[in-house]
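Write out this protein's structure.
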Amino acid sequence: MKKLLSALIAAALFLLTACGAPSATLHQPGENGYIYTPADPIHVDGLTTDTYFAYAYDTDVFAAIEGAKERIYPASITKLLTALYAIYCLDDLSVEITPGDELKLVKAGSSIAYIKSHHTLTAEMLIQGMLIPSGNDAAYALAAGVKELQSPSIDGAEAADEFSRSLNDFGKLLGLCSSSFTVPDGFAGREHYSSLEDMAIVAKQAFTDGTIVQYCSMAKADVIYASGHTNTWINTNLLIDPDSEYYDERVICGKTGSLDGYYNVVFLAEIKGTRYAIGVFGSTGENARFADAIRIMDILEINDRTAA
């Protein structure tokens, strides 16, 4: 089943590339979410992808962006938006959630946090389970839990679907204009898509949230659920793992995402005193995305052009 699903996703992405992927809708000046792009943004060569951005917080501009007109596939980067929406909906992240039949929606081959239906976790811990081990089970449990708190009579699977629909409305509230989200975990086919500009908006918001930054910056966590069960979660982002050859002290936090043969990473970095949200989409290898990320940071450090 895992091989079949991966093959189908890979085939869909190949066909989109071969036949010409649909174009993204670009933000226009004055629109909600618009980020200024200078006439000569920094270009980064030597990457395995030509789809990336570097957003400079201090000047609110794209210091670098390539592939803005392309439709991209966020995969588990979606979890940053899922976390933002859950935080937006909940007054108290210490509320306890016990997963239900929504866990049946987790697809074979998913990255998981090993959460079961007899476990009880706080909403904050489910956010942690999404962001450290990139748990698709945590994403579905959180999505269903948020909607069940709003509508107690709804069942888990229906609640998760309702969350996904609401995710699109929330995205528009943030200023997204070229995205379609069908699941809370991002593990979907070509109907689940976005753009670099939209992903930059998500990163811009996510990396100013203390809860998200806290967990996206942890390489490892030993956790105890509200039900007393214990676990150890390992972050999929090697840029923040001190034991990895891809560790880079300029990186503050980040989130990975991948489909078969299509690898992403979005992260917050500080380079020569300037904070950047950087996104790499469609790298050709699991570790190539980290090498691409380091290359982008190196070029930003050399150029240091963040003013409009």
